[in-house]
Amino acid sequence: MIPDWSTVAQEADAVHLPAVAYLELAGRTPPLGDGRWTVIAGWDPDDGRWRRG
Fold this sequence. Notes:
It is built from two helices and two strands. It has 53 residues and is an alpha+beta fold. The protein is flat. The model has no long low-confidence stretch (mean pLDDT 90).
């Protein structure tokens, strides 16, 4: 699953992946609960992404 970042930007200025979450999720494919799965590919520990200016 790839997030719809334009929709995320309507609600949040940034998205942050804390290091502890990275360590918990790295190498795993957690379920989203609706039959889809996701990964944290492309993220680094304690990474943040600005969505709005």
